[in-house]
Amino acid sequence: MTTGWPALLSDGRVGLRPLRLRDAQSWRAVRLRNAEWLRPWEATSPSPSLEAAPTYAAMVRRLRAEARAGRSMPFVVTLDDELVGQLTVGGIAWGSLRVANIGYWVDQAVAGRGIMPTAVALATDHCFAIGLHRVEVNIRPQNVASRRVVEKLRFRTEGLRPAYLHIDGAWRDHLTFALNAEEVPQGVLARWKSARASSR
């Protein structure tokens, strides 16, 4: 078993690398440009009056601490080395469970180009390579774009989790999608690339 962090992962023009403090300007610019597009899918606090929104620096420090503890892998998604999104492997548990979950967002300007399926495939393969057994993605049923990512990668649909996460100001239902390592012995990325090639 290894923490697998820090990690640099890539396939062609798409890359995953650790989130950095010096990404602040690029990260803020992409987030500001996509604020309305991302708002319906963003995690929120059920007690906003008691919890101030974290600064970018505070967010990075918290994610780094989680990464050092082996509970998280906070990546930025890059296209031609430019920041276009974020992907976080979180909820990492070892022992007899060996599970993680993946959350992600991408700049609307580059959505639909296969960037996020490639990023999720890279991250999932990395999780399996370091000894995790199961990877989950939890998505609001209404989030068609995010659902298309896991559908393209052939994650298994496992069912509905009622009022699972606090999103956009309320507790929201989520669909759970998952893969176990033995389901993709050739790797998720290889399967995804094969499916893309055969559809051309």
UniProtKB/TrEMBL annotation:
One of its GO terms (molecular function) is protein-N-terminal-alanine acetyltransferase activity. Transmembrane segments: none annotated. It holds the Pfam family Acetyltransf_3. Residues 14-182 form the N-acetyltransferase domain. Gene3D superfamilies: 3.40.630.30. GO terms for cellular component: cytoplasm. PANTHER family: [RIBOSOMAL PROTEIN US5]-ALANINE N-ACETYLTRANSFERASE, GNAT FAMILY, PUTATIVE (AFU_ORTHOLOGUE AFUA_3G00765)-RELATED-RELATED. This is Unannotated protein. The lineage of its organism: unclassified sequences, metagenomes, ecological metagenomes.
